[in-house]
């Protein structure tokens, strides 16, 4: 099979592999905190313990990423260095995620088992995530082809994540909750998602062919020194990672649970409303998933950073002004959704730029230091994405405690658990929850809105300024480096 035929096949089969993986990621990252808040009655100490567990596990997860990348670099099998970790990692993830959302315990027993499972998840997901994204530099060294792999993969990832973001709130919250309660619904959805993920990843494992020249290279040692030296000696990698960290903290706040709680407090306890909000909010990103390579060719990443930043900031400003000024009616919901569409469009484009900017430092590393270190460099993206998610959890749970939201979510979880045990009917449950929501003040809801609009806008301004000032590896510079490396080969 010639190279063009291999590329065409890979461009289809590689992106399909992440469809289910991103459904799992969306379930855990965007809905785990909501699952806990709306199915468990927690006191402040228990919530604080869960917050510390989630932060600690995600920091551990982030630190584990480059270690996993280093281990993958050492792997030598007849299936290559990536595919064994894809298979073992996704099967381990199946077991852990299913158990996490079907935890039968309550109180401190729930907290303890949650801690064990969450740390196991940190290891399990990393096994297949680092190997998956680390494979891209081995699929092609051509910049245009790499843009195609990245954009198509993020398109399929976006479809998987968006479907999860649409369907999960719809079928876990309100009148359409599977089984009549959030706890039963989350357990069944976790099973479905965990079955979908390995099926789709088999397309990548069985069908994708990567360049395995690395099999002829000397196996690098497993050491923190190697990881640290790779980052220390690659200045463009460092600036790209800092840009990604700040951008992802801001981008993750809305879906950390804050936006869902705000929507429920403002417009009622209906998961369908939040599904509409996220569906329409994510819809414009499909344009970028498809046309990013063409946009990048025409304007370049630096110009796109400027334009996308302005679009995202406009969306945050619109959401904040309308949210504070208008009463809780349909017009307000529509305009809030339009604001989220604009901010999410801009932020998603900035995320794509961050991904490609980090991956392109592989060739910069080879040019400057003589080694590619693909898996280690690829591990930086999930490292800083997970580190950012730890910070968003801290901000979200801190907001719940600071603004008095915990009192309301505990009352809601009491009604949900009564319904789970069959002690009250669905209608009685919904009436009780609506009475809880009506007791919340407008100031408490507004505080959530300010958190999910103002803080992301500030972080976006800082991250984009740093990228434009410090990241120098633009298209021309990258092409020059690739040409120089090709001459050496």
- The percentage of residues in β strands lies in under 5%
Counted by DSSP, the helix tally is: 21
How far is the first residue's CA from the last residue's CA?
Answer: 23 Å
Query: How many runs of DSSP E, i.e. beta strands?
Result: 0
Q: The biggest beta sheet, please?
A: none
Radius of gyration: 22 Å
H/E series:
HHHHHHHHHHHHHHHHHHHHH
Q: Give the low-confidence spans.
A: none
> Class by helix and strand content?
mainly alpha
Average pLDDT taken over every residue: 88
What fraction, in percent, of the residue positions are helical? over 70%
Instruction: Report the principal-axis shape.
Output: globular
Describe this structure in words.
With 489 residues, the protein is an all-alpha fold. 82% of the residues lie in helices and 0% in strands. It contains 21 helices and no strands. The chain has helices spanning 3-16, 19-39, 44-74, 83-100, 107-134, 136-139, 143-170, 182-207, 224-232, 235-252, 258-267, 271-282, 285-325, 330-359, 361-369, 374-378, 380-402, 405-420, 426-438, 442-470, 475-488. Helix 10 (235-252) runs antiparallel to helix 20 (442-470), helix 11 (258-267) runs antiparallel to helix 20 and helix 15 (361-369) crosses helix 21. The longest helix is centred in the middle third of the chain and has 41 residues, at 285-325. It is globular. The protein starts with a helix and ends with a helix.
